[in-house]
Amino acid sequence: MYNMSATEIKRIGVLVLSYGTPKSIDDIEAYYTHIRRGHPPTPEQLQDLKNRYEAIVGGVFPLRENTDKQVKALEDRLNEKYPDTTFICYQGLKHAAPFIEDGVEQIVQDGLTEAVGVVLAPHYSSMSVGGYMKRAQAKADELGLNIRFVRSYHLHPKLIEALAERVEEALNRFEGVEKDRIKVIFTAHSLPEKILEMKDPYPEQLLETSRAVAAKTGLTNWQFGWQSAGQTGEPWLGPDVLDVLRTIKQEKQAEHVLICPVGFVSDHLEILYDLDIEAQLTARELGLHLERTRSLNTDPLYMDALSDVVYAQLERN
């Protein structure tokens, strides 16, 4: 039998794109300044953000490790599933080093000529995923790298299965409570309302994911809510999840609530603080029993979904 030699195996770079987090408390100011497009935060804003990080990690930063582990798990899964190709994964972060451009440059420096870009966020928005792709494409064009991108994968069967498993698991924490008496709130990061005028697919893709998970788990008592809106002068998409909790209490819709953050794929500030601390505090004040689904992190089903969509880009003509 003919065996392909190592020199004949195609080498593909995979640029794994994400928002980025600071590495330590000392990096928060530079990180926040980058988010604010070069405008340093006020002392009050900086202290507030530091307090949030201290509350969830106590000064130690495991958040960056979550992304590192996801990137490594994806590389391992790709090479396991598709042994006819060697995949090498690189990180490109929006607001921290290695920046998106750094990742593209490293791919070229390593001698690779072809790459696939994929964002660790299943839902497309021109303001998030689209922005990542634009920056990566610009650097790739500058350096002569042939790169193609995964635009979205919000309805991939394995992603839906992984989310549905988490919903089922979390529902079991409400011992003795019937499923239809538990209010399920699917959430994602809010964006400025102006994306609605742009006919951006982000809100509808999130609803499509939510509907698919609800159908797979037999949910009827659910709704969508937004979270983690930016503090700017413009209106952001709502209702905010904290307001949803208040409405549930005021209208006596339920006493038990489950949040499933379908727009997020790992544990970070928006999960560990905005939901596990802030939303839990609000729920306790309202007398609601609140639970949250586990994050995807390096779940094998999620890694399968990612590896599928990356490989599919290579099979396109």
If you had to describe this structure to a student in words, what would you say it looks like?
The chain is of the alpha/beta class and 317 residues long. It folds into two domains: 165 residues, Rossmann fold (3-Layer(aba) Sandwich), CATH 3.40.50; 136 residues, Rossmann fold, CATH 3.40.50.1400. Helix content is 46%, strand content 16%. The protein contains twelve helices and eight strands. The strands form two sheets. It has a four-stranded parallel β-sheet, sandwiched between helices. Helix 5 links the parallel strand 3 and strand 4. Helix 3 crosses helix 12, helix 6 packs across helix 8 and helix 9 runs parallel beside helix 11. The longest helix has 19 residues. The radius of gyration is 21 Å and the shape is globular. It starts with 9 loop residues before the first strand and ends with a helix. It comes from Paenibacillus naphthalenovorans. Belongs to the ferrochelatase family.
CATH architecture of the largest domain: 3-Layer(aba) Sandwich
Task: Categorize the overall geometry.
Answer: globular
Counting DSSP E segments of at least 2 residues, the number of strands comes to 8
Binned, the helix content reads 40-55%
Total of domains:
2
Query: What proportion of the residues form beta strands (DSSP E)?
Result: 15-25%
What's the CATH topology label of the largest domain? Answer: Rossmann fold
Strand order, sheet with most strands: 2-1-3-4
- Strand pairing plus helix content: what structural class? alpha/beta
Determine Rg (CA atoms, Å): 21 Å
Instruction: List unreliable stretches of 5+ residues.
Output: 1-6
CATH class descriptor name of the largest domain: Alpha Beta
- Compute the average pLDDT: 94
Number of helices: 12
Report the biggest beta sheet as strand number plus sense, adding barrel if it closes. Answer: 4 strands, parallel
Distance between the amino and carboxyl termini: 29 Å
Q: SSE string, helix = H, strand = E?
A: EHHHEHEHEHEHHEHEHHEH
